[in-house]
Amino acid sequence: xxxxxxxxxxxxxxxxxxxxxxxxxxxxxxxxxxxxxxxxxxxxxxxxxxxxxxxxxxxxxxxxxxxxxxxxxxxxxxxxxxxxxxxxxxxxxxxxxxxxxxxxxxxxxxxxxxxxxxxxxxxxxxxxxxxxxxxxxxxxxxxxxxxxxxxxxxxxxxxxxxxxxxxxxxxxxxxxxxxxxxxxxxxxxxxxxxxxxxxxxxxxxxxxxxxxxxxxxxxxxxxxxxxxxxxxxxxxxxxxxxxxxxxxxxxxxxxxxxxxxxxxxxxxxxxxxxxxxxxxxxxxxxxxxxxxxxxxxxxxxxxxxxxxxxxxxxxxxxxxxxxxxxxxxxxxxxxxxxxxxxxxxxxxxxxxxxxxxxxxxxxxxxxxxxxxxxxxxxxxxxxxxxxxxxxxxxxxxxxxxxxxxxxxxxxxxxxxxxxxxxxxxxxxxxxxxxxxxxxxxxxxxxxxxxxxxxxxxxxxxxxxxxxxxxxxxxxxxxxxxxxxxxxxxxxxxxxxxxxxxxxxxxxxxxxxxxxxxxxxxxxxxxxxxxxxxxxxxxxxxxxxxxxxxx
Length: 550
Description:
One of its GO terms (biological process) is phosphorelay signal transduction system. GO terms for molecular function: DNA-binding transcription factor activity; sequence-specific DNA binding. It is found in: Cytoplasm. Its main location: cytoplasm. This is DNA-binding response regulator. The radius of gyration is 31 Å and the shape is globular. Helix 12 packs antiparallel against helix 13. The mean pLDDT is 87. By secondary structure, the protein is an alpha/beta fold. The protein has 23 helices and ten strands. Strands 2-1-3-4-5 form a five-stranded parallel beta sheet, sandwiched between helices. A five-stranded mixed beta sheet has the order 7-8-6-9-10. Helix 3 links the parallel strand 3 and strand 4.
């Protein structure tokens, strides 16, 4: 997805571009805004957008000066110039600075999206050129182990494109007849603790040590290539292969290897781990199936029976687990925290875990899902109380650890400790928010817009007034009224426009000014985009309707 930056001092124009741009079709995932040239330059340097749309006449720094800076600092950046002045000097400077397109105000949907499409096409073309260059030079710029890792990952993720790469499979011996391939998965349960005590908090160093143990423990005839899973910090993936025997033989030998590695890792480094094995197949493209099987076995290990020891998952446990609902208990926990009773909230959490502990089994995968659900539910609760996003971790271990929260668990007792730490973190946030005076109500914003719709309304005004984040205000307003703040301003203006146009004594220019538009043409464009007809066409239709009635 691409990122676009709009630099213009007229907020209605920025809103119009936001509304008219066909962002989803153009694969634009984020649209940023800056209100003047200086702020635009700061955002260029900070956010590195893929494409820029900029006005030529702005405060702080004009378009001509900004174009020259962009040409020097961002020579590859596509720029679409917007101007209300059909001035040859602006057009000439835009062309000198390799501007992609030059649009005159007021902007219309077709011209805007044609210019944006031109920019996206240019970006796609450059991406394709870079991809082709990388493909041609990959064997020169990447070591063989890294290339093998990339290849195995593409097979495991089912993203390998045979037609696009005819030669890479020979790197892993796929040309040999009778060669079997399978996957072993290892999950390090005490990752943070062992990293801190044995590897100077360096997870890459730990992964290197695990890979070395795999290599040293491998027997003659069985090849094993191991690497860290880039998507799962705790996981190591080992692809095993062998030739000259049948599938059962290689599966047996790989299983022995996995058990030896798990034992040796604990003896050497104190690593507590759980392993899983996938069945081998002659076609390396079946590695995805083998990986999924191995991973299911890892996450099927019963945490209630693990008790802080390493283990190898032998079965694919697909039984349905009926555990009490966490969601149903969150209302009680929320009520306890709002009343300042943190002890009661902790007791409710402990009672919930006790019920889980009394079940027949509770897998590692179930524990992961429980912690993810806990963070998601607490984040929702915190948002309801106006807690700023920066105080809330995202689901996932890295984010939790960034807030100083424990994430290691190799037994159910340790899972209880992780659960309690997360609950305590959110308890402090929510109790503090609940005890703070909250004078804000989204109706305050609505009332202000209803009475000041003709002014230049900015969300930053409300954020500063109520000491709340821009994102929280926007979300709360939309939840309560069904519109975004800017959408609601536009709606009110258009509703008022219809009433004013009913009065033939008022000119369109006068109505435009009464609604807060600086330019009659821009008002006409906005009206057409909203109702599908210009103000004049709307009045003509009113007259015709009146004549028919008479």
